[in-house]
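Thread title: Can someone regenerate the structure for this chain?

I was given the following input by a collaborator and told the matching structure tokens would be attached. They weren't. Posting the sequence so someone can regenerate them.
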Amino acid sequence: MNTPSNLGTTAEPLLLDTALPEFRFSRLECSVIAATPDVVYRAARDLDMLSIHSPLFDAVMWARGAPARLRRRPVVTPSSMRVSDLFETGAGTGQEEDRPWVALGERSGRELAFGAVGRVWKPTIEWRRVEPCDFAGFVEPGWAKMAAAFVVHPYGARRSLLTYEARTACTDPDSTTRFGRYWTWVSPGVGVVLRGALRTIEAASEAAERNT
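Best answer:
Regenerated them for you:
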């Protein structure tokens, strides 16, 4: 019997495995895309989250501004929420302090990982800005650590498998309980948003592939 030459080899850890190796809650969606990995990777990096339109995602974005509306304050809507912004915002500009999500790592052409820390179960989400170098070791009680990543795999001659994974770990038992109740309610919706992102990337990738 022939034995595969790579039997017993250790797979390279994902960036997510470094940023958040232990987690209690997760969601993973994937899509096979008729485009080469480099094209898919560029489309994932250029993804504007505000371009994803579904009833759920639109409702979530509206709900984010509900507290300000109740106080008759103007709702500040960003012009875009591009994944690339997390990786390209220059230090010292001041803009990065306004965003809770931070870049956790990038392997060009293969992986993009990003994360945030917050109390998302509250009516108005409380964010805790944590710098990328401190994310993995952050253990302050009372918070949920959320990490997500796009990973692109070759799949045949001119196709790619794109995965979008979201993980959450909480920093103490009480937060785990609170987030668990919240997750029971939002998990199906998270799947809708993840699949919407994959569809948007798929459309952009296949259009770009046709034009090459």
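The first helix runs from residue 15 to 19.
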